[in-house]
Amino acid sequence: MMTAPRKLDHCVLAVPSLEEARGWFEALGFVVAPDAQHPFGTENACVFLADGSYIEPLAVGHRETCEAEARAGNAFITRDQAHRFRIGTPSFSCVAFASPDADADRDDMREAGFGGGESLAFERRFRTPDGQDGLVGFKLAFARDLRAPDVAFFTCQPTHVHKPDRSALTRHANGALGTARLVMAEPNPTDFQYYLQHLTGDREIEADSFGMTLRMGRSILEVATPEALAIRYGAARDERRGLSFEGIVLAVRDFEAVRSFAPQAEERHGRLIVRLGAGAFVGFEKESA
C-alpha cells in the first residue's frame, strides 16, 4: 500500500531557548519570525523559506503546561519531551509533511501499522514583522515506528482560512531559498525503506551501500550510513540502531553571502556545513538548475 506523494512542510529543531536559537540563526544571516506560543506550553521562532518550507526552533515555554499536556496524552508534547531527554538540545527532532486532510492521514497511518495516536488540532497567535497580529490553526496526524524513537514524523494541515503573508520573512541575507535535503543516519538505512516510503509516498527510492534517498516534493530525504555521514558532512554517528535526524541542507544560488556570515563553515562535497552546538548542523548547497 502506497500513499500519494507528500511534500515537506517543515522540520522541528529542539532548542534550549528561543533566545539562543534566534542568536544562532540571525548570526548566520537568517530572518527569524517573532516568538509565538503554543497553547500546550511550547513556543517557536520560525525560519521561513521562499519554497514554502521552514525550520521550527522549538523551546519549552511553560514547563508545567507541557507536563500536564503530556499526562493528558498530547502526542506532540510527549515526543518532544522524550527527544529532549534522550538526545538533548540543539537537535533536529521532527519532520512534518504538508497535508490537506490530517484525519485521513491518521487513518492511513493506522492501516499501515504506523499509527501514532489521535490527531491534534490547535490555534496560536502570530505577529508579522510590521506588528500585525493574526491567528493560525493546524491539525497534526502522527506516525510511529518503535524502532526509531529519536525522530518523529507527522502531517500538518493548516486550518486557518487566510494564509498569512510571510514574504518579508523569507528574504534572507545569506541567500537561503529553500530546503534541499534533510539528512538522517542509520547503520542499515534500507531497514526503514517501507516506513519512509509510506511517509513520503516516493515509489522510486535511490539506494546504494552508502544509504538511500527519497523525494519529498522538491526536497530530498537522505538516510546515510555513519561512514557516509562522516565523509559527506563531517558529522559523527555511532553504530546504534534507529533513525537519527542529523541536519538540514538549504539551497542557495552561490556561497558568497553564506561565507560572509559563516566564515567558520566547513566545505565538504560541494556544500558548506555549519554546526549548531555539538550535534545538529545546517548546510548549504548550490541550487540545482
Description:
With 289 residues, the protein is of the alpha+beta class. The protein folds into 2 domains: 8-170, 2,3-Dihydroxybiphenyl 1,2-Dioxygenase, domain 1, CATH 3.10.180; 178-286, 2,3-Dihydroxybiphenyl 1,2-Dioxygenase, domain 1 (Roll), CATH 3.10.180.10. The protein is 22% helix and 35% strand. The radius of gyration is 18 Å and the shape is globular.
Whole-number mean pLDDT: 94
Major sheet: 9 strands, mixed
Distance between the termini: 33 Å
Instruction: Name the poorly predicted regions.
Output: none
Instruction: Briefly note the CATH topology name of the largest domain.
Output: 2,3-Dihydroxybiphenyl 1,2-Dioxygenase, domain 1
Rg (C-alpha, Å): 18 Å
**In one word, what is the shape?**
globular
- The helix/strand order is EHEEEEHHEHEEEEHEEEHEHEEE
Helix percentage range: 10-25%
Structural class: alpha+beta
The total count of strands amounts to 17
User: Which CATH top level class of the largest domain fits?
Assistant: Alpha Beta
* The CATH homologous superfamily of the largest domain: 2,3-Dihydroxybiphenyl 1,2-Dioxygenase, domain 1
Number of helices: 7
- Strand portion: 25-35%
Q: Architecture of the largest domain in CATH?
A: Roll
* Number of self-contained structural domains: 2
Topology diagram in text:
Layout: E1 8-14, H1 18-27, E2 36-37, E3 42-44, E4 47-48, E5 54-60, H2 63-71, H3 75-86, E6 91-98, H4 102-112, E7 120-127, E8 133-143, E9 152-158, E10 178-185, H5 193-200, E11 206-208, E12 211-216, E13 219-224, H6 226-233, E14 244-252, H7 256-261, E15 266-268, E16 271-275, E17 281-286
Parallel strand pairs: 1-5, 6-9, 10-13, 14-17
Antiparallel strand pairs: 1-6, 2-3, 3-5, 4-5, 7-8, 8-9, 10-14, 11-12, 12-13, 15-16, 16-17
Helix pairs in contact: 2-3
